[in-house]
Each structure stands twice: as structure tokens, then as C-alpha cells.
Amino acid sequence: MPSYIPLGIRTSYSLLQSSIRISELKNQDQFKEFGIVDQHNMFGTMDYNENLANSGVKPITGCELNLNGKYQILVYCKNQIGYKNLCKIISNSYRDKEPSVYWDDFQNADGLMAIAIPGQICDQDQIQECVKNMEKYFYGNWAVGIKNRDTDEYDACYMSSICSTPIVAIPDIRCMKKEQNQAYHALTCIKNGKYFDEDFNQELHLPSSEEMEELYSDWPTPLENTFLFAKKCSFLLKKKKPELPNFSPIPEGMTEQEYLHHKAFEGLATKVNLEKSSNKQNSKNHINDLETYKKRLEFELGVINKMGFDGYFLIVADFINWAKENGVPVGPGRGSGAGSLVAYCIGITAIDPLNFGLVFERFLNPGRVSMPDFDIDFCPKGRGKVVNYIIDKYGKDNVAHIITFGSLQSKGVLRDVGRILQVPYPVVDRYSKAIPVIQGTNLSLNKFMENNDDLDQEMQQNDGVKKMFELSLKIEGLHRHASIHAAGIVIGKEPLYNYLPLYREHNLTVTQFSLNHIEDAGLVKFDLLGLTALTIISDTEKLVKNNHPDFDINNIPIDDDHTLNIFRNGHTVGIFQFESKGMTEAVVGLKPEVFEDLIAVISLYRPGPMENIPTFIKRKHGVLPINYLFPEMEATLKSTYGVLVYQEQVLEIARNMAGYSMQEADLMRRAIGKKKPEEMKKLKSEFVSRICSQMKSNEEKATELFDQIESFARYAFVKAHATPYALIGYQSAYLKANHPIQFIVSSMILEKNNTEKLAEFIYEGKRMKINTLLPDINKSHEIFTIEGKEIRFGLSAIKNVSINCIKNIIANKPFHNIDDFFKRTSISKKSLENLIKSGAFDSLEKNRALVWEKRNKDYQSPALLFETNEQAEEWDEETKSQYEYEALGIYITGHPLSKLDTRKMNIEWISQRESKEEHITGIGKLEKVISKKSPNGDAYSICIASDPFGIWRFISREKQDSLSKFVNQKICITGEDKAKFIISNTVQSFEQFLLTIEQIIFTIDNKANLLSLYKTIQDDLTQSKGTKVMLHFSQENPIIVGKINLSEDVLNKISEFNWKI
């Protein structure tokens, strides 16, 4: 039996102030009880209550509270009442910038125990005041604590003597073992921005029973009192069933069940117009039987009511419909919730599930009881309005965002530890960048260090690197900071502090429990996601309505040929879900004829099913025959040309061919996904047996069908998720095809701060014959605007032009001339310089060099403003173009490669590439190099380049360092055009490329042509090194006349002649 109970455990939820993981408390075998008192938070309460209780360790729930901003007291929960009171106390404590409680906050301390630590209190007067308040609020339920016997014993005895309060030993515990003290020290250095102290020797480990017995050998009472204290704390936080808030308003005399039934059938009458589909969702599976809809609706309502989710549907429909009525764009739905007809009828989703064969049981299954989960997309600009509506409706005490915890992941922890150890930055940076990211997650340090001979060698030779990795390993995975979940909020039936403790972040109320523990605390999560595609669609729709007031994006035809041509031709820039190179190639190959084809390609274009894309395309185009293992499968697989694409198809096959109910089929699908061998064996046997019985099939054929389903079901996509996404993509394409300038300008406005994406839309507009005009000091607005059939650059997209500068310009325009502008505005020098470089003053003065001089005079002495040289030499076109690029991040009036005739050089503009050949040779200007690591740890680079017609990307196996010298330079690459990306074989400067050209052949038509050529190149001709110069006269073989050192200057000289290489 242990000699004491540790009552002062801080876990890693005391952010960067403890290295103790919950798993370490769970796996130790010395103590069966722990008092956990994280620093002014209860972040880990549900986590450690679940994990420790299940392993036979009793957690004593508490926390360390900052009192009056002066010192701390430890407060523990005796029972459920105490837990609720502590939740309320700590929730209220976040009213100040620095969280703190005051004595008055303990007015209701029922169910709580407390420990006062006198060693933190300055003098005896304060000790007496503390005792007075402890007696007042915790009478009979508090103790005096000794952290360190050497320093605290006198004050503890004095405090205890005032009112005969028991003394408990309560060492400050922040790591499990002595050798982990340095890990704790590293955490505090990271937190406080200090350097690591090798001599740190503060002992904050979990003392063993023997250590404490020795320390208190002459006075065992403080140890014995820990048992008496712990005995009073019987509280264990248990999981609760999620509790929905009451929905209102409901008509008098109606229940939630009755009201949902009423709203669903009311919606059915208006949503599902069976004679004329008002929402134009006419799929190949269109159902025209009213009874079918009614039957499905009654079934869903019955399941919803049986599972107790009527209120959930009403709550979600309420805030979605409020958003629509108040101008906040809402997505058509996503995830399995789109399979609900009730959701469609009451406005939660915008997809008719019967039209598209979507299954309700994939969303709610009576055989699989879990909370429903609608993922709702909103325009990011309006999402906050919806959250505020929910807060106003249900009360600020009843609504909160959800906390998330950032952890010390491998890349970041190396940087943190390297900084506090003062390891040279290049060394830290090299190792941090060397750790690969696999499917969005950093490879762990342990994995990275496995079989890493180079690292082993450096660790042997460099103590700093060795220490950096050793310390990083000890703290990797610990919590680093708290932040807010991007989408989730909770709504409580009662004030949330009755369920869990609350926190404040960025002036928002946030739960102290993370997403995994919200439902266990008795709360329901609602997901409100932000989707920028909705912003573009909404902004475009508003612009279209300027000329077409009745236009409604939700009432567009679903089979518009102009729209489908966007996909067939691969013009997918800006099209939601279809922008990537691989997806574009897939949809071009598919050549969609109906909306269903878009749903299929979204579902197929992901790891696993992707291998079926070629078969799918060939079957669609009749290149391959469509075969069905059983003829009865045709009804299910006809729309996907005999290829299993959706999870819903698996359910349908199980129902129609094996006699499963939809609930059983969904449970089978989930079980297949879990891949448990024993369960799979049982499933397979039952499925084969039922197929043999239902279809009169032999076992071999039935087994083949199960094997097909098993291999597919692990990767299958939910059609209910793909359909709404396909609809958003289709709506984007419809606007682009039918209202192109409105779509492009809306996209540019959204991406004005993302130079790469902005350039992409400007180039795409150019391809569509939509020109982008330079900024104009009198015509430009803050954002991009439509000007006739062109787009005017917005002032806010010019680099280093502040919003205050823009307001100043807009408030004072129009300007009559440059001098008028200088007189009536006051803007920063950097803003002015970039306005000049961008060409914004061209309408007032075409000579930009002259404006540039005026700007210099103005900033040197206002008196000299009007003495500027009016004959300043104009910038040449190349200088203008480069300055525009510096100010705008993109070339508008010209590109450094605009004059190059690639046809003569047998190379191509990759941004306009249509060739199906795999090998490519292309030219561009390298804009950016991004360093990456493969899952195997191999270094590679993603390179972004531009040419006169667009932005393009390629992957190079060369490291960033070797490519960085080419940034902002003209390059030539050779490589392979793969399905998803271009992989370069060589990257060289354009000048280097020119030197590799072996010969240049001029076609000579007449003597004058020959004489002109000779005069042009005579000074560059040589007989030694260089490119052979060959003349080709009609009907004669080319003859060599010399050699020439090819350069850009030479190319410019010979641009008017007829030549090739």
C-alpha cells in the first residue's frame, strides 16, 4: 500500500507546464488514486476520468485556481454538485484577460474540497485573511498543503493552528520520473521564450512512497491526511447521453414530433413538384410517384422520432432557413445527411435524395444508434452571423465554440527545442524540413530516426543535435496550445457550465472539452463550416442579378450543354472540386453528358477507386463492354456503367439480391470497413448463403460477388456526399459558362491576397477573351470591378497599398492631373511607389518615369514639386512590365517571354498544352520553389512557373537549394507529363538552353532577304564555337555559313526572319 496519495498532479493539459501524459498515470502500478489539478483549467477532466477509471485508477477531479491574481488554491470535486459548482466558478473566471477567481466566486462552494498553500502567501496577515475566507466558504472541507517541507512547514503549521485545519503533503508533480525533469524544464523554456539551463535541478517528479516516507519519517500525519482528504472525494465524471435543447417556437398544442411531421409534409408539397421539377434536379433516376415520396417521408419521420432526434432536425433547419432569409449563402448539404428526404423537405439540404438514389439508412440507422451529424456549409463571410443568431436564440450561456489542442508535432518540436538549446538555425531548419508529411500528418520522430544513418552519425559527432532529438522525443505529442475548432459549436438545454467548464479565446466562449468528449458530457455538436466556393457563387449571382433580376442559381437547368462543355474541354479553373490537373484530365476523358457523370467522377477520383477510372471511361464510350456478374445488378449499376462507385450501391445490392434490410446492409458495410478477420468470415458466410438462397446461385459466383464488394467497400465513397459537391461544382461551371465576366471578377475579388490564384484567374480571363485592365487612380475601386467587357484591377490588390490609403484616394477622386493628386492626398511613400509602378496614374500622365520623379521631389521638398523635368525619359516596355509585376504580383501588359516564338524552337507554352505526348519541353519564368519530402523521406520540389498564357507547376527531384537560383529567371524544362502532374528531368536557365541548340535553319526566299539577314547577324557570326547557322534556299539542301552564340539579344534581332531549329 502506498504511503500517501498524490494530490498535486499537473498533466500535459497544463499547457507547456507538465510533461505527464494521461497514459503514464494509467500505466503505472504504484498508485490507485491521483488528485489532478491542472493550472486554471479542466481541459483533461473527461479524458482522465474515462481513461483512468477504466484502468482501475481513481481520478480525483480538481484544478489549481489563480486567486485574486496573487496566489493559488487547489479545489476538488466531492460529488456531482461540486463538479457543477467548480465548472461554473472556472467558467466565470475567464472574464478577465488573465483568468482569476475571487473569494466571492465561492459563494456556492457546496460539494467542493480545497487545499490552501501557505508557502505562496507573503505574510501572516494574508495567511489570516486566507484562513478566514477558507473557513467561510469551505468550512470543514479544506486542508493546508505543504509542497516543500523545507520552505513551507512553518507557515503551514501556523495556518493550521489558527483553526485546527489538517495538513496534507502535496508535492508539486509535473513529470513522472526524475530523469524527466529536463523535459519539464524544456517545456517551460518553450512557453516563456527562455534558453535551456543544463544545471536545472528542481525536482518536480512523482515521488515514490519510499521517498515520501523518508521525507516525513518524523511526521507521518501529512501523508496520512492525504487518504482522509481523498476519501471525501467520491466524484467520478461519467458519460452522459447527449441532450438536445428544446426547440422553439412550436405552435401551441403541438409536440416537436408533430411539428416536424407538419413541416416535412408542408415542404414536400412545395419542394417536390412532380409535374414540373421546379429545382431542375432531373437525374436519370427521376421518380414521379407521389406515394413513393410520402412512404419514404413517413418511414424517415418514424425513425427520427424513435431515435429522439425530432428536435435536432428542427434546430438545424431553423438556423439554415434563417441564414437563407438573411442573405447568407448556404450549401446544398454534404455527407450522408443529404440522403434524408425529411432534411430536403424542411430546407436543411437542397438535394432530392429520391432523384439521385440516396439512402437514408446511411445517415440514421436504428441498428446503429449515434447522434445525427449534418455538416452544413456557409459562405465564410456570413458564418459568424449564423453563429450570432444561434447565440441570440438560445442564450449566450447556452452556446459555445469547441476547443482544440495543438500538439508538439515532430517538425515543430524540433524547432522549439533547437531554439531553446541554441542549436544553429540552419541545422534545425534542415532537420525540420527533412521530416516528411504523410497524408497531412508529420512523420513521428521515432519513425524518422529509424534506419537514418546520416542522423546517427551526426548525433555521434554533434552533442547539440543529439540533445535536440533526445529532448524532442520526450515531449513530442504533448499539448502545446489551445485554439478553436473551425466548424463545431454546441447548444445546451441548460447553461453550458452545468455540463462542462468553459474557456475564453479571442473573446469567444469555448468549451474546455475537445470534440471527442463533447457528446460524453451530454452535449450535441452542430457543424457550421465555411466554404469559399459559396462566396464566389453568391457574389457572381449578385452581379448577374444587376442585369437579370430574376436569376436564381438554385433554379438553373441541370443538363445545360454550355456548362457540361466546361468539363469536357477541361476549362476547370475556379470550378469547385474539379480544378486539379488529375481531376481535369479525368473529366475531359469522361466527357460528361449528364450531371450523374460528375457525381461519379468526384467519387472515383480518390485513392483506391481511382484505378477504376479508365474502365469507367472506356465503358461509357463503348470501348469496353458492360458486364454484370448477375443480370439483376444492372438496375443498380447501369448509371455507372457496371462499375461499383458508391456505398449506396453496396447497400442496394445487399437488399435487392441478398434480402438484407437497408439497416442490415449498412451494418454489413461498416463491418467490412473495420476489416476484423473473425467478423469478416462470419459476414462472408452469411452473405454467400443469402445470395445462394435468394438468387439460386452457386457458391463460387456468390463468393466472387462478396469479394468484389469487400475490395470496393473499403474505399467506396458516399454518393450523398459526392452529389452536393458535384452540384456546387456544376453551379460554378454554369456561372462560368453563361456569365463568365461576373464569375471571373468574383473569383478575383476572393483571391486578391493570393497572388498565385489571382494570376490564375487573370490568365483564365484572358483565355476567355476577358481582359484585365491596369489599376486606374480615377476608375479603380477598392475591389476588382466590371468595366464594359473588361475587368478593372482593384486598388486593394496592389502590394503595400493600405486600406487607409485606398479610402483617402476614393474620398478625393476624381483627380485632374498628377499635381492635383499630390495636393489633395497624403499617402505613404511605399504606397505611392507601387501605385506608379502598377500604372495607376497612366490616365493622368502616360510617362511613368515623370510621375516617379514627381514622387521623389514631393518627398524631398514640397516646394520643388512643380520643378520636375517634364522631359524625363520614359521607361522601356521591359522596365514597365517588371515594375507592374513588382506592384501587382503578375504581368498584365506584357510578360518577359511574350516576344518569344516557341513554334520556331520546337518547344511549347505548357499553360496552353494540348498535346497528348508524354515528353515535354517547355519554357517559363520560375516564380516560386517549395521544398517537400516524400513519404520515404526523399527530397523534391514543387515549382510554380508562368508564361504569357498562364501559371503552371512541375515537380523536380532536385532540392530547393539547387533550384532557388532560377527564381525570377527564365527557365527551360524537359520532363514527363503524368496524369496528375509534370515531372521534370532537367531544369536549366533559358540562356543555358540556347547554348544547347545545335543548329538554326533560316529559310531564304530571295536575295534581299539574304542580304537583310546577313546585315542583321554579321557581327555575331563566328567560325568556332556556337550554334550552326544554316541557310535553306528553295529546292536546295541547307548549307552551313558559320556559327553563332545564341542569346536572347540574337533571338530579338532575328525575330522577323523565317527560321527554325
UniProtKB/TrEMBL annotation:
Q: Name one GO molecular function term.
A: DNA-directed DNA polymerase activity
A GO biological process of this protein is: DNA replication
Please name one Pfam family that this protein belongs to: PHP
What EC number(s) does its UniProt record assign?
2.7.7.7
Domain DNA polymerase helix-hairpin-helix motif positions? 770-849
What catalytic reaction does the record list?
A: DNA(n) + a 2'-deoxyribonucleoside 5'-triphosphate = DNA(n+1) + diphosphate
Q: What keywords would UniProt list here? A: DNA replication, DNA-directed DNA polymerase, Nucleotidyltransferase, Transferase
For this entry, the protein name equals DNA polymerase III subunit alpha
- What InterPro entries does the annotation carry? DNA_pol3_alpha_NTPase_dom, DNA_pol3_alpha_thumb_dom, DNA_pol3_finger, DnaE2/DnaE/PolC, DNAPol_HHH, PHP_dom
* Superkingdom of source: Bacteria
Keyword Oxidoreductase, does the record have it?
no
Q: Where is the Bacterial DNA polymerase III alpha subunit NTPase domain?
A: 260-530
Residues annotated as domain PHP: 9-123
Domain DNA polymerase III alpha subunit finger as annotated: residue spans: 534-691
